Amino acid sequence: MTVTLSRELAECRIGGHTFLRSVFALILREARVRHGRSRIGYAWAVLEPFVVTAAMISFFVAIGRRSGLDYAPFYASGILAFAYFRHASSFIGMSLEANTPLFSYPRVREFDAAVARLALDTITSMIICVLVLTFLFFVFGTNPPHDLGRMLIAYFGLGLLALGVGLNIAALQRRFNMTNYVYNMLMAPAFFLSGVFFSLQSMPYELRHILAWNPILHGVETFRAGYLKGYPDHHLDLPYLYFMGLLFTCSGLVQIILSKRGME
After folding, report:
1. Blockwise average pLDDT, block size 10, the chain, 264 residues
2. What is the pLDDT of residue 8?
């Protein structure tokens, strides 16, 4: 029994090393394809959304208050958290279509491509977050994040949800070519229903319970609660965000297996 257990552990280690090597190679490939081989390409991929986000924050602050700059961190936290989920899920949703030739290799799996895209987008989005928060500190004079650990927990929860949603989109994309296009259209109303411009606490009681079914909102609001000291958070449910992320991930993996069998 001890020999069998040791053999299984050795096989798990080998499988884990193979998975990590595959994901790392795919991250490098995705970075080169998406941003080019030069450093300028990746720098532009970071600077462009940073400039857009900073402009959006400045605009909403300008129309949201006649005086003062208190709304800057509120809008910034909402926009950053939602933009990460939206872009990561859409990016993962195209992972199978973009990497189809690689799946003929025995060591490359569909899940590897999805995780590689999630890792690349998470790193890029975190750099953008640092730039935006630095921008707020120097331009608007906002305070630094209150609870960085809580912000990261919410961020990774949104990443898990993005992985699950993206896997489902990728599987459906194999059957219906318009899936990712329709999903991006649905993200427009989701932008206004996920707590980017409002707090869940400020909503009427009946509407609050309807909006609370949206797991993205819990990630956005928890990210904001970690940033702003004293932000009301008793209505937030972070375990629900992680539960929905795991549920969508399992569902996506099943969908990918079924779609792959349908293609054979």
Report:
1. 60 69 81 66 71 78 56 86 94 86 78 91 91 85 88 95 95 87 91 88 86 94 91 88 96 88 54
2. 63
Q: Residue for token digits 């987008």?
A: 121
- What is the structure's pLDDT at 159? 96
pLDDT of residue 66: 43
3-state secondary structure of 8: helix
Question: What token pair was written down for 184?
Answer: 């991006």
Buried b (16+ CB within 10 A) or exposed e, 45-68: bbeebbeebbeebeebbeeeeeee
- d(Cα 154, Cα 159) in Å, to the nearest integer? 9
Contact 151, 235 (CB under 8 A): no
pLDDT on residue 4: 62
What is the number of domains present in the chain? 1
Say how far apart CA 2 and CA 67 lie, in whole Å. Answer: 71
- Whether the CA torsion 163, 168, 171, 177 is positive or negative: it is negative
Domain hosting residue 17, numbered range:
2-263
CA 141 to chain centre: 27
Residue 140: closest CA among 64, 61, 53, 63 = 61
Query: What DSSP line would sit under 112-165, residue for residue?
Result: HHHHHHHHHHHHHHHHHHHHHHHHIIIII-PPPPS-HHHHHHHHHHHHHHHHHH
Tokens 């290799």 — which residue? 105
One DSSP character per residue, 38-58 reads SHHHHHHHHHHHHHHHHHHHH
Angle, CA 187 vertex, CA 253 and CA 201 arms, to 5°:
100
